[in-house]
Amino acid sequence: MNVATERKYAELKPSTLTMRGISKEEIDQHYGILYKGYVNKLNEIRQKLENVDLSAANQTYSDLRGLKTEETFALNGAKLHEWYFDNLGGPGGKAHGRILELIERDFGSYERWEAEFKAIGLAVRGWVVLAYDLDDQKLHNYGQDAHNIGVPWGAYPLLILDVYEHAYGIDYGVKRAPYIDAFMNNIDWDEVNRRLAKYNI
Question: Is this model's pTM higher than 0.90 or not?
Answer without folding.
Answer: yes
